[in-house]
Amino acid sequence: MKRMRLRHVCVPFVAFIFLTTAFLVPVLGAEREDVIMATGWAAFNCKGGDPATQTGAPPYANRTVFESLPHVTLNRVIVPNIAKEFKVAPGWKWVDFYLRTDIKFQNGEPVTIEDVKYSLDTYMRKDLKYVFGSMWRRTLKKIEIVSPTHLRVHFATADWGFVGRLWWGGGIMPKAYREKVGDDGFADKPIGAGPFKWVDYKQDQWMKFEAVENHYRKTPTFKTLKIVFVPEHSTRLAMLKTGEADIAPLFSAHVAEVNANPDLRVHWLKETSGANIYFADLVDPKAPSPFHDIRVRKAVSLAIDRKTICKRILFGAAEPWGDVLPSITLGFDKSLKPPAYDPEQAKRLLAEAGYPNGFSTKIHVQTTSTTAEAISASLADVGINAKVEKYEPGAFYGNFFRRKFRGLIPYVGWYDPELQACSELMDFYMKGMPHAYYTTDELDQMMKTAMFAETDEDLAKWGRKISKYLRDSHITTFLWASHSAYGLSSRIKNWEPTIGGIPGIEFETITLNR
Predict the structure, then answer these.
(1) Number of alpha carbons in the 13 Å side-chain half-sphere of residue 490
(2) Which among 182, 180, 200 is positioned nearest to 49, based on CA atoms?
(3) Are 386 and 376 in contact (CB under 8 A)?
(4) 33-37, 336-340, 405-409 — which is least confidently predicted?
(5) Is 97 helix (H, G, I), strand (E, B) or coil?
(6) From the centroid of its chain, how far is CA 254?
(7) Closest C-alpha among 345, 321, 334 to residue 479
């Protein structure tokens, strides 16, 4: 069985959508047996607990209530789970899954091959708008039950990320139960085979789960889990301090304060995403723009003081990065140094390109951006007057997906590290992908060819080729690798979310100090 890594849905580092839903969390004593996570993510982008309505990340319900055909280890290796074995046919003609027969749903019914096929078919229903639905309708040819324990998924085209996506958000649902209660009934009271069962929820405010006893894979060591949506950074920090929350993602400026508190500690997930800048003008080669000249694009890179921004604006929650790939991706070159900061050379390149006095442009970001002004200031030092334009999430994505922006767009460069470079970068550079603002025919073809790579050697070769092309062409400017900080209360003894995972989930790994 080939070594595989997972593929996730894209959530840009400037695009974490923080809603303003109000909620009330009671102060709870230390004797409580539950774990509370205050999340700043727009976590509830599904209807109730229905995984087939998941429109984005993070998949909290999908990865707690449900189990998938594969599982992913702490070190991000895909291993068997509900499927005791899976095999990829040469050329990605199909993937065979062989099921275990001893796994049961939380209602006591066994997980069958019919449940697996039904779940995949449900994810591909157009009306449910599942995040991978349109992709799977395009890449999958047929789902075939070969025997009561053998499922074959036929492919219309290679899809290296398919198996990993099943783990990320392809939980298996009980066919008979969902058909009995309907879509709305299932969203309200979902049943899966995961280590937590669904208890209750308030849409867009909180979800509550209860541990499953004697779970076949991992039995939680605490009774209940509650995830509450807390968009304000300072409120999450206050909840950690008062004991109202046990886990909370931290605003980078709060890391030092948490480190200084003897009752709290910081847990880091490294390389959870990469950040870059899109040159939006490249989508229209006929329209005059300074950015059509590679010297100007190089000048933008040279003008940005990455080290200072990472240290003073992001408070160490990011670091300048040499390669465009994360370190676990095959083909990553650790010898590459971060792009240089050389404003004088940037000025010389601008003059050579015909812009000795610089020019004006815009930087388009969401209202949550914390680095746009610093990037603008760096560019101003070399004569590029980059006005920052901020948008609410709906307006930002409306313009982004319709390719209406011109100028510069700070955006995600990769997300949730993977083994295969094509799976890592396809969301941003393959034609037809919604987040691929601009790509080239050559890069698109490289991506499509790389999808058929089957050995580690071939994967590394294509990783190096794709990385070199991006670095040489400067069709984007890579900025830095981002890290995610979580504040943990003294109640949390241990927590092992998947390395690089964004956000950290794997709540069944939590142990408490008692």
Answers:
(1) 9
(2) 200
(3) yes
(4) 33-37
(5) strand
(6) 23
(7) 321
Fold of 271-482: Dipeptide-binding Protein; domain 3 (3.10.105)
d(CA 421, CA 440): 17
d(CA 135, CA 35) in angstroms, rounded, equals: 35
The rounded distance, in Å, linking the Cα atoms of 374 and 361 is 15
Q: What pLDDT, in 10s, does the model give residues 414-465?
A: 887 877 888 788 889 988 877 899 999 999 999 888 888 878 899 899 999 9
Which of 199, 198, 195 is closest to 214 using CA atoms? 195
Residues of the chain with CATH 3.40.190.10: 41-229
In the chain, CATH 3.10.105.10 covers: 271-482
Distance of alpha carbon 274 from the chain centroid: 11
Angle between helix axes 294-303 and 343-352 (nearest 10 degrees) is 160
DSSP helix/strand/coil, 439: coil
Ramachandran sector of residue 230 (left: φ over 0; alpha: ψ -120 to 50; beta: rest)? beta
For 33, the token pair is 């047996």
Please answer whether residues 195 and 210 qualify as being in contact, where contact means their C-beta atoms are separated by less than 8 angstroms: no
Signed CA dihedral, 310, 311, 313, 318: sign only: positive
Q: What is the CATH number of domain 41-229?
A: 3.40.190.10
With 0-12 / 13-18 / 19 or more C-beta atoms within 10 angstroms meaning exposed / middle / buried, residue 442 is exposed
Q: Give me the amino acid identity at 411.
A: Y
Check if the beta carbon of residue 350 is closer than 8 Å to that of residue 296. Answer: yes
DSSP code at position 468: H
For residue range 278-327, list pLDDT tens digits in order. 999 999 999 999 999 999 999 999 999 999 999 999 998 999 999 999 99
For 302, 352, 354, 381, 495, the CA distances from 348, given in Å and listed in that order, are 11, 6, 10, 13, 50
Q: Are strands 384-391 and 196-202 parallel, antiparallel or unpaired?
A: unpaired
Q: What's the predicted TM-score (pTM) here?
A: 0.82
